[in-house]
Amino acid sequence: MTDGPDLFSSDSPDQGSPGPGVGGSSAGAGRALDPLAVRMRPRTIAEVVGQDHLTFPGSPLNQLVEASGGDRAGASSVILWGPPGVGKTTLAHVISHAPGRTFVELSAITAGVKDVRQVIENARRERDMYQRTTVLFLDEIHRFSKAQQDALLPAVENRLVVLVAATTENPSFSVISPLLSRSLLLTLRPLDDAAVADLIDSAVVSERGLAGQFELEPAAKDFIVRIAGADARRSLTILEAAAGIATAQAEFADGSTAAHSDFDGESDTDSDESEEVGETGESKAEDENRPILITEAACAEASSETVLRYDRNGDQHYDVVSAFIKSIRGSDVDAALHYLARMIVAGEDPRFIARRIVISAAEDIGMADPQALPIAVAASTAVQNIGMPEGRIPLAEAVTYLAMAPKSNASYMALDQAIADVKNGFAGQVPAHLRDAHYPGAKELGHGEGYRYSHSYPHGVAAQEYLPETLRGKRYYEPTGNGMERSMSERLEMLQRLLRP
């Protein structure tokens, strides 16, 4: 299971086995070794935070949670779509806890058609013999092939199983249309910073969490919120790891203090006061009960860098690339460099990035700055020759140049209009004086007759018709007033007067 428990309530009552975690109690030994994110999992829909648009009273999700057996139909099967750490698996488990439910969990990574059919057969038995509805939670449904998804259709359509499918990929690309039409698509939103901060605070004090044995430095909490990237599970994972580091550092500090005291030659029997009073003037008992401070440095050690939400084959790939191109087109150099950085950090193929830069130079800058395309091509060549990570340097140079260059799509739009005319039947015949006259018999057909050689005329421009008769007088290229096209506009008007006096 790859999208584990991930939504948490900051004000829900603590229930169940607390589990010690780092420095926790030993109560509830069955959950003692569970990760902090698992121990803090919500158990009811009321405890789920950050998804108010899905959990309001009477919502389809609420109906699905509250429906009992066959007394109420409730909502249909659902597909939960959202980034990691926002609650897809949590919601599936909350749904499974409704009365009259049998919960079955499969992962699309390991399950096949045979497993799906076995679940369906068991679901039929559960319904016929015990009047229980089977909830099938299918994690990472986007990894199922079309044939595997097809196997689910009859059971979903007849509500033999209530399918709760989770995916981090856009279902429009990864889930077959018949299954989408038989299910409700629920989009989960990333948690905002305030929600993640509340969850961290709750985990620090909750008996299911760190049980008040740690104190979180404000800067440390801000660091976790920032580095977690709206992923609640990741925030708790970092918190738990930082708590372990803080514990080890505290134990090491205590050991160093003891060793230092022995080195100074102080005897254990010098005075009762030396045994009972710590460095801060408080008794050792009070010092031992003091919460261990989790610092920003400990959090930084627990998480060396952000895990970037980016899938080279999914919607994030297309979203980031789209934002990258639009930022260059919009002349926002800082935004363009930001999205370039995201692609590089995520491990995007640098050749793909270079191709997009070349396209942008031709499409969005064009003749407003004819140097943009050679610079983009040079960056692409450099990346292929030197590779990464050094290849990021020419990429950055090209992106900076393109973003700051004047913009024009006049050439691009002119060609598209010309293509549209050709496709719409306005191609017409090539004028006879422009046709090839070099092959045998061409001159007898009138090819080349009357052609005017441009270099024999003033300014190198010969007045004659170049377009087919069907397009006589047609103009495609309309220069903008940006960059070099400002002067090109003047030249174009002069050329038009010479060509068509």
TrEMBL record:
This is Putative ATPase. Gene3D superfamilies: 1.10.8.60, 1.20.272.10, DNA polymerase III clamp loader subunits, C-terminal domain, P-loop containing nucleotide triphosphate hydrolases. Keywords: ATP-binding, Nucleotide-binding. Residues 1-30, 258-292 are annotated as: Disordered. Residues 18-27 have a biased composition (Gly residues). It holds the Pfam family MgsA_C. Residues 264-279 have a biased composition (Acidic residues). Belongs to the AAA ATPase family. RarA/MGS1/WRNIP1 subfamily. GO terms for molecular function: ATP binding; ATP hydrolysis activity; DNA binding; enzyme activator activity; single-stranded DNA helicase activity. Residues 74-210 form the AAA+ ATPase domain. It comes from the Bacteria.
